[in-house]
């Protein structure tokens, strides 16, 4: 089976790519992440992924488009949580690319993170699979999350301090008001 593996960054790619390789699958990594802000941060994460793919001799496809305005609007207009739009825009792009370029299935490194909304990712990927008529390859990669972290630390890879969007960057650094101490 030839799988298109959508990747959000280098560190998150480590375990899913390793596992696919161990299981004997052919795969190509696909980078499309307009949810990563600002642009300089996107370049930093992409460069880290490029270096890792070169090291491991993994095939990498980069979609250089960066529809920032559309992405921000989509996140703000999403009726449930902004992450739903964020997952959909990336997974639909991966599904479409996989379909148009002769892959047997698509998957995503987002499935490795215990900090992401795993069930929502799975549901949205399954919808994208139906929409573009291409199988979604599901595996719960969270079991290998720590292994991926350890390898990324050994390799001194850049590890981003926030999820990706400007909202998550604010949430990461915003000073929370101190709770009043009862006298
Ligand atoms: S918090 Fe992360 S998953 Fe959610 S919208 Fe922002 S970048 Fe996307």
Q: How widely separated are the two ends? A: 65 Å
Count the domains.
1
Q: Mean pLDDT across all residues, rounded?
A: 96
| Structural class by helix and strand composition | alpha/beta
Task: Determine the number of helices (DSSP H or I, runs of at least 4 residues).
Answer: 7
Q: Hetero groups bound?
A: iron/sulfur cluster
Strand content: 5-15%
What is the chain-wise order of helices and strands?
EHEHEHHEHHH
CATH top level class name: Alpha Beta
Q: How many strands appear in the DSSP assignment?
A: 4
Radius of gyration: 17 Å
Low-confidence runs (pLDDT<50, min 5 residues)? none
Q: What is the CATH architecture term?
A: 3-Layer(aba) Sandwich
Helical amount: 40-55%
Biggest pleated-sheet summary: 4 strands, parallel
Give the full name of the CATH homologous superfamily.
HUPs
Explain how this protein is built.
This protein has 183 residues and is an alpha/beta fold. It has one domain (2-173): 3-Layer(aba) Sandwich (Rossmann fold). 51% of the residues lie in helices and 11% in strands. It has 7 helices and 4 strands. The protein has helices at residues 10-22, 39-56, 68-77, 82-100, 118-132, 145-154, 166-173, and strands at residues 2-7, 26-31, 59-62, 105-108. Helix 1 crosses helix 6 and helix 4 packs parallel to helix 5. The N and C termini lie far apart (65 Å). The mean pLDDT is 96. Bound molecules: iron/sulfur cluster. Iron/sulfur cluster is lined by residues 35, 75, 82-83, 86, 163-165, 167-168.
